[in-house]
Design brief:
This protein is an alpha+beta fold. Helix content is 47%, strand content 12%. It folds into two domains: 41 residues, no CATH class; 32 residues, no CATH class. α1 links the parallel β1 and β2. α3 runs antiparallel to α4.
Length: 81
């Protein structure tokens, strides 16, 4: 499956979020195509590259979209077996 190219999902600090919202005129929209996961945890904020699979699984599990939540649950089950 090829990921959709019109969606963005990433981790940012609160100051980065504020900058991106101003720069790209972003507004909160639950059905939007940009998901910014805000954290000021120094370890997460300093991370570069793709997030570890367990982090992705937990984020998917927390989704309100049933398919994403199920994907997160299956991903985490696979890591625990």
């Amino acid at each position: 499956m090829t990921p959709r190219s019109d969606q963005v999902d990433g981790y940012v600090t609160s100051s980065e979020r504020d900058h991106l919202m101003r720069e790209f005129f972003l507004v909160e929209d639950i059905a939007g195509n940009v998901s910014l996961r805000v954290t000021d945890d120094p370890e997460v904020a300093a991370w570069t590259g793709i997030m570890p699979i367990a982090v992705v699984g937990v984020d998917l599990l927390a989704s309100t979209d049933p398919r994403e939540s199920a994907a997160g649950r299956n991903l985490l089950k696979g890591l625990m077996s």
